[in-house]
Amino acid sequence: MMKSVSAINKVFFAGMFSTFFLSCTYAEEQAVAPMLISDLTETPTFEQCQARFLHQAKQQGLSENIHGIIHQLTPIKRVLTLDKNQPEFAESFAQYVNKRVSSYHINNGKKLLKKHAGLFNQLHEKYGIPPQYLVSFWGLETVFGKHKGKMSVLNSIATLACDNRRSDYFTSELFDLFNMIDEQRVSVAQLQGSWAGAMGHMQFMPSAYRKYAIDGDGDDKVDVWQSEADAITTAANYLNKIGWVKQERWGREVKLPTDFDFSAIAYDKRYPLSVFKTLGVKQTNGKALPDYDIDAELVLPNGHQGHAFLVYRNFDVIMNWNLSKNYALSVGILADKLVGGKGVSSVKAAKPLLFSRIQMQQLQAKLNELGFETGKPDGIWGPNSRKAIRAFQLEKNLIADGFPNQEVFKSLGLSQS
């Protein structure tokens, strides 16, 4: 661990980021610090954010070492650009899954299942997480360690903590980092990762690292950047603690009948599997759904004209890792492929999304005007938008799949060109 600001300069900041010192007085700091960024109508300056971080650090009794780190934080403009263009929201399901369930992921994932077979078996017995899921997360997060990220986690998270969109969340993550540095659990020199602040082989956010990190290779330290065993073991512990259900699968692809009653099913809501069976939903091979006593949610990543999935409780656990249905579907599909499953039908044609983020914002704004509440237009096809689109479709006697297809845009008088 770095013991002084000068040591931090030598190890981490020198040659990587421009040095930046806070210029406000302590009185100015006290005036700025109590403000929550999420309460502001305008984005504060980074200097104001630093003052707020420093005030909070002093309130929490963090060391002078942390005060020095805060003084030298530097915003990264590219982080905000990347935050607005996440592939989870900018790619179609086919584009997304084809990149992440590739022959490379499958072949190398199978090799890693064999390489770490002993560890995976121990973790399966202790935590209840089947090995293929751990390898699948690993593949999606960093392509098995190839792309762990080289950005400053401290500066990335500080940048996002100073942005209105998710300030409170990233401020909390930043202070988890500060606490881990003070606790000597991590060193500043280690803290490299993704633009969003995720770290190591499995891309843990600081809060997950702080709560769930475990030594997996027996060397009495945790290093999720260099130690595959530490990263895998931490992932197993994390999934177990956030609710993984033993001996249940994530979900399955299904076939809807041509006359499926979309008005009977609301999206982002669970129903007994027997309800879907009654509505004529079948397995992809045409066989009836099993008679499991389990609740399921219907997921249509491309609306009624695309793939259909029934997902179970472990799908929600995957979503806790990354709040994207495309991500969670890809984890499940890759996990199945790693143990001989067929994956999904016909995703070869990776057609782009039918709408841009700006077009989606326009659609959300129009629905809000008509009384179909989507929340603040953000261009993301999320739960509120699905619910609002479905309500609009029901009113207009359209197929109520909750998807922003051409019929919806046309009925709203909006163009997709």
List keywords for this structure.
single chain; 417 residues; mainly alpha; 4 domains; five-stranded antiparallel sheet; two-stranded antiparallel ribbon; globular; disordered N terminus
Average pLDDT, to the nearest integer?
88
Number of domains: 4
Strand line-up of the largest beta sheet: 4-6-7-3-5
Rounded to the nearest angstrom, the distance between the terminal CA atoms is 55 Å
CATH topology of the largest domain: Helicase, Ruva Protein, domain 3
Biggest sheet layout = 5 strands, antiparallel
Low-confidence residue ranges: 1-40
Q: Radius of gyration over alpha carbons?
A: 23 Å
Helices, by number, come to 20
The total strand number stands at 7
Residues in helix, %: 40-55%
Strand composition percent: 5-15%
- Which class of secondary structure composition applies to the elements? mainly alpha
Name of the CATH first level of the largest domain: Mainly Alpha
Question: How would you sum up this structure, described in words?
Answer:
The chain is mostly helical. The protein has four domains: 5-82 and 149-240, Helicase, Ruva Protein, domain 3 (Orthogonal Bundle); 103-146, no CATH class; 251-338, Lysozyme (Orthogonal Bundle); 357-411, no CATH class. It contains 20 helices and seven strands. The strands form two sheets. A five-stranded antiparallel beta sheet has the order 4-6-7-3-5. A hairpin with an 8-residue loop joins strand 6 and strand 7 (308-311). Helix 8 packs across helix 10 (131-142), helix 9 (117-127) packs parallel to helix 14 (228-241) and helix 13 (206-212) crosses helix 14 (228-241).
